[in-house]
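re: that chain from earlier
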Amino acid sequence: MQGGDHLSACKVSYQSSVISFLLKLSFVIIMISTYSQTVNNQLTHKPFEYTSEFMSSIINKV
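^ sequence. v structure.
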């Protein structure tokens, strides 16, 4: 009986470690995806801001 109890305890600790690993992995993936989204937003919005400023400066000069 002791061997079986030890085996079940090992199985439970293994499952909990796998679950915590998956949670950490999903958290890291979420962080990376949000970071890449913010970087992409900055990259896509910056040229538009630059072109709008450029166009407004041209219009003001004219």
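Residues 33-62 form one domain.
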